[in-house]
Amino acid sequence: MRLSIFPLTGAILFPGLQLPLHMFEPRYRALVSDALARDRRIAMIQPKTTRDGSPLYDIGCVGKIADVEAMDDGRYNLVLDGESRFRMIRELDVATPFRQIEGELIAEDGDEVLSGIERAGFEREARRFADAQGYSVDWDAVAQLDDQSLINGVSQIAPFDAASKQALLETPDLAARCELLIQLMYFFGRQNGTDDRVTLQ
């Protein structure tokens, strides 16, 4: 399928989650206008570098515009609802100011759950990580989250570098993503208060 993309370093989206965006560049304002006129869908994908026109990673996520605020100066505030991960097949040669690709959707198992041991191991490392970073967390609310919302939600907002976040997005199943997230929290939490980011590069 043809997908209009918003390539943004450090931003990933998972199915079932939301991503707020502020669109101010003319090409991405055009992207939003086009999406609103068609199917309201925008594909989020990370570029491999910050250079304009950079090659793209292979996996991203299609989002549907759920809420949008059009501002007087042409900018947009919007919220994307994650629908499905996709695999890029090739980039298309287009006349639009925004980039477009051909991609295929990745089938998701919406019934995936963690074992009790996996969930407990994650929550234990998440508590240690939050304490080390000085984060305030409502653990009672965390305990009420289903496994997918918890693991994918933390993967989406975690303060890791772009390559690490991409690796989380590309993991094939929930258990593997949980294990990778535990490893990243473990190593990131041992940066001894520096500004360094864990990297898989």
From TrEMBL:
Q: What domain of life does the UniProt record list for this protein's source?
A: Bacteria
InterPro entries named among the record's database cross-references: Lon_prtase_N, Lon_prtase_N_sf, PUA-like_sf
User: What Gene3D superfamilies does this protein map onto?
Assistant: LON domain-like
**Domain Lon N-terminal positions:** 3-189
- PROSITE patterns from the xrefs? LON_N
Q: What is this protein called?
A: LON peptidase substrate-binding domain-containing protein
